[in-house]
């Protein structure tokens, strides 16, 4: 058994191993492992699930609860396999796929996974916008646009650490659970009828009712197991620091199984509560065709008064907000794992959200708000297409005895896993087939476009799925990663001290200047030359450059000269340089012009939003110069 992960190639590297449960015992140790599955479970409570649960409950009462139960068992199995992969191999599902498949295939696996995340995000956007409209009578297009602001919340929570992020998600789940618990008491379902819903019914009769029931059952299963959740879980379990021994693996797998069972069963109870709520409130009162979330809200208010729909809307907003955060984490995992691309979390969040907002806004403008329900269905079809590309490799990787060792899954688990994969892929294939059939029936004029564009894409995706299934069985890949973001460590034969002859020190006339100069002279001593750089950023400086000579610029010249003279008195060779306009461009220009070979820069020490707004100069300079940069953070008093 080998571990293909390197210290610089950890999944979610900024929080990898950030929670240490090793020194804890008993309940404290269990609590330390709880968390990853809760982040995963919110994907099972998103607006897409709500739509299928409401449709099933309003059309067939309690008869489809057993379908929810079976879906939950499949989800438990697959999520436990994802956790096992992350714990034992120290790789997330995307990283493992990168090692097993060629680069070209990984590129398309990334594209499909990213499209699935955008499709999932689309459902969350619509759900949150509907919740905001129901609570505050906000137009849907405003609500959709406002959802872009959760980028700030995502950035803030990621900077606060994994436990804070998990705490936020768990609080959202608590709000959803309490909302539906209260609603359950309001509608008062019949317990015996609910219990009968757990008895499997016949979905395969040839009558119209059974065909409709089968279609909704496929929707429930298809919306339950989401592909990005498997990527997410295999990475999140690595935020717990474990001893990488056989005993350590056993312990981690056991505690993460507790986490998975508790969290996903809570998700099942929430979904069951939605279906029971719809069955009791609508089916029992003769409303058999409630498929839209807005319709459910109106009927709840009509039948039970104001409290029930308000709780419904609050739960909807909480569900959408928590799901978007986990979608961002999954996006980071697939981007780094499949194609080795790392960008800032806020930028990734913003890009994903914008790509999801555009079709939602387009739909509202050109087709009206009533078309959003169809857009949610379309997003679930897109999710369905991608699911097999996550499930099939996961089963291959966890069955691999060479790499999983004693922790490869047993024959019984393997049979159950492949049966689940066949069921999921088969039912989702039927869903896609039926959807294309509906498009062809609904608009005969669009037949040509569907045959030219849609059908070839579906065939191409099907062939790729066959390749993903066959490749691990026909070709054995090497243990060494094909390529990783930071390369592989080279042998170190000799280390000579580097002497810097010309150093730059960025000056902003703050308390941090003294520390920057101290660190600079530690690098160069009295033999080096020091250039003190200050950039004037006034509006005049940005427009007129060196021609500006306002009072602020003159003051900056005088202050910089005081620093230069002070260093000369101490026996150091110093000179001053003033730059104008954009700080990063000005600093890089002075460095390149003067042949400087080392830069010392002060950091403001901002966090979260302030870091986003103010802390970009250091990073920009780093990319604009080809010399080492030392960043000096201000010391706390």
TrEMBL record:
InterPro entries: NRAMP_fam, Rossmann-like_a/b/a_fold, UspA. One of its GO terms (cellular component) is plasma membrane. The chain crosses the membrane at residues 64-87, 107-130, 136-157, 169-192, 212-232, 253-283, 303-329, 350-368, 374-395, 415-433, 448-470. It is a multi-pass membrane protein. The gene is mntH. Residues 500-633 form the UspA domain. It comes from the Bacteria. The keyword tRNA-binding does not apply. HAMAP family: NRAMP. It is found in: Cell membrane; Membrane. This is Divalent metal cation transporter MntH. GO terms for molecular function: cadmium ion transmembrane transporter activity; manganese ion transmembrane transporter activity; metal ion binding; symporter activity. Its main location: membrane. It holds the Pfam family Usp. H(+)-stimulated, divalent metal cation uptake system. It comes from Mucilaginibacter ginsenosidivorax. GO terms for biological process: iron ion transmembrane transport. Keywords: Cell membrane, Ion transport, Membrane, Symport, Transmembrane, Transmembrane helix, Transport. Belongs to the NRAMP family.
